[in-house]
Amino acid sequence: MVEKTSIIVEPGTPTIVITRVFGAPRRLVFEAWTRPEHLMRWWGPRDLTLSRCEVDLRPGGAWRFVLRALDGNEYGFGGEYREILPPERLVYTFRFDGAPGAEAVETLTFVEKDGKTTLTTTTLHTSVENRDAHVRSGMEEGALQTMDRLAELLDVMSRR
């Protein structure tokens, strides 16, 4: 059974909540989300390549990703890790280079039950306007593709 990704964007709130169940233990899901060698294989929509992936996984440590399109255009993202509780919780800031001043805070929870992991990502923007701009950027389709790519990688990782 293929799991579906749920994206909740409630009117009037500055949050985006994405939920997906993966057929893998949470330690693997957490590992795939935090190790560059795994992130390089799934982070971002299918038509983009993660050309730069830097992870300093510690509170106060920075992360930096650059997606490259087929036409050569690059899109940079980055932030700072605030809380790391393997394999249960991850909190970090999220910035898109194309929207300076629109930093958000993402909180990820990894809950395992019967060998499957429910990942919930809550993105808290500083305003509804910033949240709406994030949604208008194509975030929903990108998130759906990204979660599908992560599921595909986890299928491979689970078979090891």
Word description of this protein:
The protein has 160 residues and is an alpha+beta fold. It has one domain (6-44, 83-158): Alpha-D-Glucose-1,6-Bisphosphate, Chain A, domain 4, CATH 3.30.530. It contains 3 helices and 8 strands; from the N terminus they run ββααββββββα. It has helices at 26-34, 36-42, 128-158; strands at residues 6-8, 15-22, 48-55, 62-69, 74-85, 89-96, 104-113, 116-124. Strands 1-2-8-7-6-5-4-3 form an 8-stranded antiparallel sheet. Strand 5 and strand 6 (89-96) form a beta hairpin. Helix 1 crosses helix 2.
The CATH topology corresponds to Alpha-D-Glucose-1,6-Bisphosphate, Chain A, domain 4
Beta content comes to 35-45%
Per the principal axes of the C-alpha atoms, what is the gross shape?
A: globular
The structure class reads alpha+beta
Helix and strand pattern: EEHHEEEEEEH
CATH architecture: 2-Layer Sandwich
